[in-house]
Amino acid sequence: MSVTVDGDKSRLVPVRVRRILRGPRPEKVPALVGTACTIGGLIDIAAGVFPRFRASRMHAVAEVLPGTLGHLSAALSLSAGVLLLLLAHGLKRHKRRAWRAAVVLLPVGAAAQYIWRHSVIGTLFSLVLLALLLRHRDEFAALPDPRSRWRALANFVVMGAGSIALGLVIVSAHPRRVVGDPSLTDRLEHVLYGLFGVEGPVAYTRGVDWTVGYSLGALGMLTALTTIYLAFRPEHPAARLTTDDETRLRALLDQHGGRDSLGHFALRHDKGVVFSPSGKAAVCYRVVSGVMLASGDPIGDVEAWPGAIERFMDEAKAHSWTPAVMGCSETGGQVWTRETGLDALELGDEAIVDVADFSLSGRAMRNVRQMVKRIERNGYTTQVRRVRDLDDEELEHVRRAAADWRGTDTERGFSMALGRIGAPGDGDAVIATAHKDDPDDPAHTGGPYGDLKAIIHFVPWGPDGMSLELMRRDRSADPGMNELLIVAALQASPALGIERVSLNFAMFRSALARGEKIGAGPVLRVWRGLLVFLSRWFQIESLYKFNAKFRPRWEPRFVVYRNSRDLPRISLAAMRAEGFVTVSLPRPFPRRRPAAAPRPCAHIVPAPAPATASSPASASASAPAGREVRAA
């Protein structure tokens, strides 16, 4: 910033000139170029589709941007517009491959502008963008995202649908040049033929049929080329937990597993992991839609957490992923925000029951006590055992029942679910089962699972705790199975050496609790009303009320994020990771897969004390009506 003396402003001119010549700040270039490509792509598409647009004043703006090139202006404008739109998102995310494609496309567009249209302004626009990309090439160093061959199929479906929709617009954009009055079916047939380069049933006058034909052919060619490229490009599989990673994590959990109830869920096989330089701490994550989601607190020694967090942030920066943490504790949130500059927002509360304080006596526990007594009078019995105490046949029986009783085709859970039962190394996990003998069927042949009626599964939380991971029940069983098994597990905990039990996670519990109290303000009441409304689909209120039956203490859990603009994207990624939102193609004849056998693990011999820490597990466990609900 220059300083003026006695009103002399001559020094301001060089400073402003230098600022203009220096251009935008390097960190702003990707967003600037990506936005320019988005605007240019939309204008090019509009210029290629609508003849009135090409003849309007707005077309003067379209000529400035790469696209309309001579006799094939409509088709080339559409092609350039679609390609620019495809590149824009990658450029904004600092992707190296998007940069390479733009560096190739822009000179071609500049040359075409000058040769075919003699447009100096359009040529300069392309060259300015090219200069920005070349000068700030170091800003575009992000590595590719995890991907598979299914991306090609998704591209074919999306691009095909988009091409058909845009083709209908192109075919219908010349109402005064159409011969006759073709129906919608004729127009759609013309589009489908045109995508393959074949003339359709719709006819035009004054050479419009050539413009429409070239435009439709260009869309079909782009759909085919992008699909072929995605099908044959090298795969970059998502990070998965290797047996060596699992062994190292189990060693950390043996020493520090009691810190966080979510610790054992770090052993999910669909998570990646980064370790601190010392190897004394680790952060487990999963990448969903460009969001790098960590779950719970880092594993290991608290003093080594900053090193693991730094590695996590470096990995996110290398791929241009959006970093986020779901369900960390208050201590974890403080470390994350201190080391990274991220923000934290309270997400909800984890229900934790201290075994020594639990009792069914008293007025507050009357409803639970009456429900449990009623179910026991109906002939139900319970068993609570360590997984290692079940023989192979019974364990397989439990696995198959849990898979068959799952309420959805997709296995839900990410931050608070393990996704398996009885894997090697998980012998300290606890299984509680409910049984009912049928007096008319003493051989238990009446159903595929005999007298087994419900299952709940806990994973270790240090040497003296366990975390609820899964709740499943036979739909024909009496309501209240979940309450019965939780009470049975709490009553059996002292004999198993368990002093604390983590139940479900209740989202926005504090807002629900405060909003129903006398004196709650209008804003809080409106917020609570919205949560109650959303509970019709996400069971927010039902989980809170279910957990509250057992008189737990509440431990807050937080989401850590970079800025508020990322929250919608993080929320969608979290719902996809948890299995509440799926983007897979619908299957006409869905069929549930059989329970998968546990993956071999290097750590076969379980440690004397639970070698792991676990979490508020499946925050879904059970609505009062007995319907299975998996954790959030």
Describe, in plain words, how this protein is organized in 3D.
By secondary structure, the protein is α+β, with helices and mostly antiparallel strands. It has 20 helices and twelve strands. Strand 2 and strand 3 (291-295) form a beta hairpin. The longest helix is centred in the middle third of the chain and has 25 residues, at 208-232. The two termini are 52 Å apart.
Q: What brief labels describe this structure?
A:
632 residues, alpha+beta, 12-stranded mixed β-sheet, 20 helices, elongated, disordered N terminus
Percent range of helical residues: 40-55%
- What structural class results from the helix and strand content? alpha+beta
Rg (C-alpha, Å): 30 Å
Largest sheet: 12 strands, mixed
Number of strands: 12
Task: Give a brief outline of the structure.
The chain is 45% helix and 14% strand. It is of the alpha+beta class.
Q: Strands, helices and their partners?
A:
Layout: H1 12-22, H2 29-49, H3 51-54, H4 58-64, H5 73-92, H6 96-117, H7 120-135, H8 150-172, H9 184-195, H10 208-232, H11 243-256, E1 272-275, E2 281-288, E3 291-295, E4 299-300, H12 305-319, E5 322-328, H13 330-340, E6 343-354, H14 366-377, E7 380-386, H15 392-404, E8 430-436, E9 452-460, E10 465-473, H16 481-496, E11 500-507, H17 509-515, H18 522-538, H19 540-548, E12 553-561, H20 567-578
Parallel strand pairs: 3-5, 10-11
Antiparallel strand pairs: 1-2, 2-3, 2-4, 5-12, 6-11, 6-12, 7-8, 8-9, 9-10
